[in-house]
Amino acid sequence: MKKTPLTTRFFARLLHGRLLTTLEVWTRPPRMQLASYREATIHQGGEVHLECQADGVPAPLLSWVLPDRSVMTSAGPSTSRISVDTNGTLHISVTLPSDRGVYRCVASNSAGAASTSVRVHVSSLPPVIQQPREEHLLLSPGRPVYAHCSARGAPPPTLRWRIPDGTLVRPSQFLHGNLFAVTEKDAGDYLCIARNKVADDYRLLHVTVAVKVKVMMTSVPTFTDDRSYHVMKVRQGATARIPCRATGNPTPTVTWFNPANRVIPRSLGSGYYFERVVVVSNGTLEVRVAQKIDTGNYTCQASNSAGERSRVVRLEVETPTYGLRGRVEGGRWSNNSGTDTRSGDNINNGGIIQTSLLCTGV
């Protein structure tokens, strides 16, 4: 041990004069209490704490020499990321790749100096999401979605959710992972993206919203007249009314097709000539002032969600065999001779047969 005597004088008042006293002070150079060299590996974005312990007489002053040759002490200035405690520990927060290198701690006093070195390695790790990579959720409308997504990595990854419409949102926009109260339109795929400078990781959440389905018993339409084909005859100029009634669940829709297989329109109630062949409100087909060209097969189709049925009615328009030269006069057919009359179906001024016709002539 090196001894460095230090002499000082002080005076004490005594009865017989002055007393001179000599003091000797012993010193000891610093001695590091940690290994002279060690290594530390830190994940990027993490924190590092490098200890430095030394003893000596007098107590040594501790300082750190950084990889860029700058010197830091507890009494000196610090940066936003790097600082030195009073006990000599060096702190680095949010470690960066540029922080890798050799850090040297120096302990010094009046008797000498000692040092120890730490080589810091900064590593990077790809993000790893802690929850299952894929998950299916079946939810009722109005219920909240709790979608958790957390990840580890170096540097620490950022998290984003991509919702079904493609929008990216931050987890901080939701409270405790509660995304939203779902409705039917919220069903779809939700993608959690964990990203850092090394790589990306993903978690896929399939959200299905249960829809209440009303169960309804259905039945195929059935015609009240079960004949699939029959013939109806009508005199020329009269009105043919062909009913078509069907039952089923849901209630069937009745559609009529003419001989050319074209849909016959429904009556607007105008009474104009262009409404001569129409379907009235109860599904009955009316052929007004029937003509020979109206002869043919007419198809009634009854349909609903359970299926459809069809029936064919052949309409035959017959030319009257009497009153060939007659004319309508106040609802009566007559010829020029006027010598004979025959009871028949009455005809109104519109030429539509109602119940009977009264004809005159041979």
Automatic annotation (TrEMBL):
Indicate the segments annotated as coiled coil, or none if absent: none
Q: Which InterPro entries match?
A: Cell_Adh-Cytoskel_Orgn, Ig-like_dom, Ig-like_dom_sf, Ig-like_fold, Ig_I-set, Ig_sub, Ig_sub2, Ig_V-set
UniProt-annotated stretches for the region Disordered? 328-347
- Pfam families for the chain: I-set, Ig_3
- Domain spans labelled Ig-like: 30-121, 126-210, 221-316
Compartments where located: Membrane
Q: What is this protein called?
A: Ig-like domain-containing protein
Native species: Oreochromis niloticus
Q: Tell me the name of the encoding gene.
A: LOC102079651
